[in-house]
Amino acid sequence: MSVDTHRTNTGRPLTARGRETRTRIVTAAAELMLDTGVAGTTMEDVRARAGVSSSQIYHYFADKDALVHAVIEHQDETIVGAHESMFAEIDSIDALRRWCAWIVDYQRLGGCSGGCPLGSLGVQVAEVDVDARAGVARALGRWERAIRRGYESMRARGVFDDRADTSALAMSTLAALQGGLLMAQIQRSTTALEASLDAVVRHAELLAAQSVV
Amino acid sequence: MSVDTHRTNTGRPLTARGRETRTRIVTAAAELMLDTGVAGTTMEDVRARAGVSSSQIYHYFADKDALVHAVIEHQDETIVGAHESMFAEIDSIDALRRWCAWIVDYQRLGGCSGGCPLGSLGVQVAEVDVDARAGVARALGRWERAIRRGYESMRARGVFDDRADTSALAMSTLAALQGGLLMAQIQRSTTALEASLDAVVRHAELLAAQSVV
């Protein structure tokens, strides 16, 4: 999957105004897919929500698959981009704990609906669109690397010793987050998400205590 | 959601043969929903896969929603039922480690496709069918309790001391499993699932070591 955000579906370059219209369509599609799922979202729903004409939406996106790919790229930029910025600042267990608390608060504010916009999209496309699945897989890989940099900062600052496997820690942290968000979405409660993220912090604390010994 | 597996859609009791036909339809639907998603599965697909007539399928299920609810109940019985049996035997960290290895092997054998049949169904229905979502939430609750009994056995055998919160441990274990399965499905690799389940075992080991001190 490779979506050129600066071209129409036939490869023509976009004007500034064209880019703005395209962004409005992708944002509307992302919101609808979060609210009612990928399958529950039609091109007509997106067209109406974005306030564009039929010819406009098809000018940018040949079909719904193209729109799904653009939404995945949008969520990659938005969500993974935000976590990249956050983890660039995480270099202590306290900072990790604040990140976990922020995630829980954010879910609570949203009534635990929607789950992770990327993970949820991934589950919905995984068995039906190999390119979309690969796009979400790449975004998850980027997310893992962002988290790993946080753990590497902690190791560099002596929070952990060299036995700490920062790559495995990053993967298990992202899995704990994804599983916690999935359970929050289904159970409409942050209880399991809190337990899952607490275990991440507790695990880091135990590793840190072990490093001090 | 309450599905009576011994009645037709109009509430008439089923004969032994009727129950067999109903089971065949639900199994076919469960397989198709795992392969192509809930939205990608039509009543006609299920009818053809189960080898029944149109009037037969509608005799048991008024519509696709009814079929989705029956599939959730089927996965609850099958998957959560299996994990209840497994966790009744898990009373040591070695046994927990064997369960994790079994999960990873099972995913690898299936090429990491499908994810968790329950978690994946939950994500697909969460925003569009409140009864189906509640059904998956109940199944996840039952799954949590099964895992908790394993941790309680470990605590009773002195693996952990009384500081171990078996309820939180069970929730974080199920979240680690769900997140690991989601990442396996999307990345078509067991690497993150292994890291996620290793963290569960490692966390239990660190708690056990702390209990010995």
UniProtKB/TrEMBL annotation, chains A, B:
It comes from the Bacteria. InterPro entries: Homeodomain-like_sf, HTH_TetR, Tet_transcr_reg_TetR-rel_C_sf, YxaF_TetR_C. Residues 19-79 form the HTH tetR-type domain. This is TetR/AcrR family transcriptional regulator. Residues 1-20 are annotated as: Disordered. Residues 42-61 bind DNA. PANTHER family: HTH-TYPE TRANSCRIPTIONAL REGULATOR LMRA, TRANSCRIPTIONAL REGULATORY PROTEIN. Transmembrane segments: none annotated. GO terms for molecular function: DNA binding. Keywords: DNA-binding, Transcription, Transcription regulation. It holds the Pfam family TetR_N. It comes from Williamsia herbipolensis. Signal peptide: none annotated.
